[in-house]
Every structure is written in C-alpha cells, then in structure tokens.
C-alpha cells in the first residue's frame, strides 16, 4: 500500500507559468510528421487513476494500434519504485517534524494515515515526498492510469517499450528542489487541502474536455490567489514542467526519426510556446491535432 500510494499525484504538482501563450491550447492526440519519415503520434495523458479515465478514447486506441513502438514518460519498475521511495526518505537523524514543525506534521500524518502510512514512516519522509502523496489522500485510485493502460496493451502486443526519463532523473527533479520551497509548498498544501482537491477536480474536467488552456488557467488562477508562495511555485514549475519539456522534446526524436512511434507524456507538457509540440516544431516536425 505504501508504494502504491507514494507515486500518486506528481502531476498535481505541475502548475502553469503565467507567461504561457495560448498555443496548442486544445487537443490530447497529435500526429507528428516530418518529410521522409512515417508519421508518429503524441498523446497527452493525466497521471491519475480515476474511473473517468478507465478507457482510452477510440481515436487514441486506433493511433496506438497502428504504431510500432511505445515511448512513455517513465516506466516505474520494481527497482524504480524502491529507489524513488528511498530518495524521499531521510536516511539520517532528520525528521519531517523538524522541518515543518509539530502542528504541520500532525496535519501531514492525518492526511496520509488513510493511505496506510504509519506515523513513524511519515516522520522520516522529506517534504517533497509528503507533497506527492497528498493527492492520493483526496483522490483515491480507481483503476489504471492512461499510461499504465498503454503499457499493458504494449506488453500484450509485445511492442518495444522505452521511456523518456530514467529513475535518477525523476528523483533529481524533486530531491534538488530547495528545502525552503519544499517546506513552503507543503505547508500551503496542508492548509488548503479542500481548495487543492477542487483544483484537481477542475483539472480532470478540463482534461476530459481536451482543453489544455483551461488546465493551465486553472492553475495560474490558483497561484495568483496565493502570492505568498509565488517564488516557490515558480521554482517548482521550472523543474517539473519547463525544464523537463526541453529534455522530452529532444529525447522523443530518437523514436520519431524511426517513424510510427506512439509517445505518451503528461498533457501539461504539450501546451504553449515552451511545450514539446512547439519545441518539436523548431526541429522541423509538423503537428496535426487528431483528438
């Protein structure tokens, strides 16, 4: 139960920069083409195990079935789950209570104990580890995520599966976030759990409407309402969304160059001038919205 709960909710941390332009504002499935190369597809997912995401849309299934390979943002194997869990724990004498104070520690423990995490376990978690787990406390898993569904289908077809990021890169994204930002964002999240739960629901509704701009706007609005965390929020956005989009757009091309690839990554990475679709365009790829 601990490991299952732990990886839930990273997508809830990815928020929008205020300067994002309304480019690639609608659509989750895109055909990606370049002269002389068989077209591939890019699909924006939501890393949530919600019942409303229990079935892949028909256009997505058709595009996947015509593909040669699957490339996912990240494939969490047993080693990856264990390593990610280890990285989110203090291995020395430090404790979460020392970092965030007794009152906020009690709020963190109350939020996570329903996920099967013991008080002793929570006391050794780093602030970013708790922050990632908060979403699972208000949005219990109900089925497989779209990424997991695609992975299962690919394995059934014996397709070649690759990943954009390695385990250590995932760890680095969160573990190197400044401690001041980890603490500020965690305290803020603990104090506003109901508001964050509403934001998660609004994000899911926008995703189901294939409205990327609405996802960005919802989170921009949240950040504007809470200027006390603006600098910490900006640091998180840079690490989780913008920096990773640059790497993703570059690494995707090793499969796109071969043609008939199906690439699935978080929908937040598709939107705007600094999203992967715009970055691929700078390298000569044309994107056509299919769904």
Helix content: 40-55%
Backbone CA Rg: 19 Å
* Separate helix tally: 14
Mean pLDDT: 90
* Uncertain segments: 1-21
Strand content: 5-15%
First-last Cα distance = 35 Å
Order of helices and strands: HEEHEHHHHHHEHHHHHEHE
Spatial sequence of strands, sheet with the most strands: 4-3-5-2-1-6
What does the oligomeric state look like here?
Answer: single chain
Question: How does the overall form come out from the CA principal axes?
Answer: globular
Q: How can the largest sheet be summarized?
A: 6 strands, mixed
- Tally the beta strands: 6
How many individual domains? Answer: 1
Class from helix and strand fractions: alpha/beta
Give the SSE map:
Elements: H1 2-6, E1 29-34, E2 37-45, H2 58-65, E3 69-72, H3 78-87, H4 96-100, H5 102-112, H6 119-123, H7 127-138, H8 146-156, E4 160-163, H9 167-175, H10 179-191, H11 193-208, H12 212-225, H13 230-256, E5 261-266, H14 276-282, E6 286-289
Parallel strand pairs: 2-5, 3-4, 3-5
Antiparallel strand pairs: 1-2, 1-6
Helix pairs in contact: 3-9, 7-10, 10-13, 11-12, 13-14
């Amino acid at each position: 139960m601990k490991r299952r709960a732990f990886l839930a909710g990273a997508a809830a941390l990815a928020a929008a920069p205020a300067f994002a332009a309304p480019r690639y504002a609608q659509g989750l499935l895109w055909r990606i083409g370049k002269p002389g190369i068989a077209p591939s597809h890019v699909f924006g997912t939501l890393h949530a195990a919600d019942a409303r995401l229990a079935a892949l849309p028909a256009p997505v299934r058709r595009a996947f079935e015509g593909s040669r390979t699957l490339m996912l943002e990240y494939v969490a194997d047993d080693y990856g789950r264990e390593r990610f869990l280890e990285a989110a724990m203090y291995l020395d004498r430090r404790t979460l209570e020392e970092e965030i104070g007794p009152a906020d520690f009690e709020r963190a423990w109350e939020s996570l104990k329903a996920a099967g995490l013991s008080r002793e376990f929570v006391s050794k978690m780093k602030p970013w580890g708790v922050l990632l787990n908060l979403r699972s406390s208000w949005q219990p898993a109900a089925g497989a995520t779209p990424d997991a569904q695609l992975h299962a289908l690919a394995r059934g077809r014996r397709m070649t599966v690759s990943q954009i990021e390695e385990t250590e890169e995932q760890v680095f994204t969160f573990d190197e976030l400044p401690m001041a930002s980890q603490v500020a964002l965690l305290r803020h999240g603990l104090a506003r759990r109901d508001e964050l739960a509403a934001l998660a629901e609004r994000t899911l509704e926008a995703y189901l409407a294939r409205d990327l701009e609405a996802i960005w706007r919802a989170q921009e609005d949240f950040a504007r309402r809470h200027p006390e965390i603006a600098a910490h929020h900006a640091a998180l956005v840079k690490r989780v969304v913008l920096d990773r989009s640059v790497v993703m757009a570059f690494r995707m091309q090793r499969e796109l160059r071969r043609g008939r690839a199906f690439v699935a990554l978080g929908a937040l990475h598709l939107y705007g001038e600094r999203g992967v679709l715009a970055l691929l365009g700078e390298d000569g790829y044309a994107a056509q919205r299919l769904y």
